[in-house]
Specification:
Helix content: 10-25%
Largest sheet: 4 strands, mixed
Number of domains: 1
Distance between the termini: 36 Å
Mean pLDDT: 93
Strand order of the largest sheet: 1-4-2-3
Low-confidence stretches: none
CATH topology: 60s Ribosomal Protein L30, Chain: A
Shape: globular
Length: 119
């Protein structure tokens, strides 16, 4: 499988730092699998980006915190579904022993580069 990230990206605009997003829907629901949780995080992240005039194509850096490295293949597949075609932000992936809620399998924080006309 091709790597779902870029080795480096050059940002040319104001940066938006997004706190770690968790896989909880607005109604409190939490998907049981890594695929559903990754998709929910990107729905949450996209909503935040939208409020700032940005979108997933403006992401320049993502940090992934996975509870189980054995979920990596399914996580990467879901991740590639959520990113615009060909857009691969720089990224760091860390396996962690736990997250703030015992049902969370993944958390993602982000940095986006806002185009100057939208900052």
């Amino acid at each position: 499988m091709a790597k779902p990230y870029s080795d480096a990206l050059l940002a040319d605009g104001p940066l938006l730092f997004v706190s770690g997003q968790v896989p909880e829907a607005p109604d409190g629901e939490i998907a049981l699998d890594i695929t559903g949780q990754t998709r929910q995080i990107f729905r949450n992240l996209t909503e935040i980006l939208d409020r700032h005039g940005a979108g997933p194509g403006d992401l320049v850096k993502l940090t992934y915190y996975l509870r189980h490295i054995t979920d990596l293949e399914d996580f990467r597949s879901a991740l590639l579904e959520c990113l615009p075609d060909g857009h691969l932000p720089a990224a760091t992936l860390v396996e962690v022993s736990g997250l703030v809620h015992p049902r969370y399998l993944v958390e993602i924080d982000a940095v986006a580069c806002l185009p100057r006309d939208r900052a």
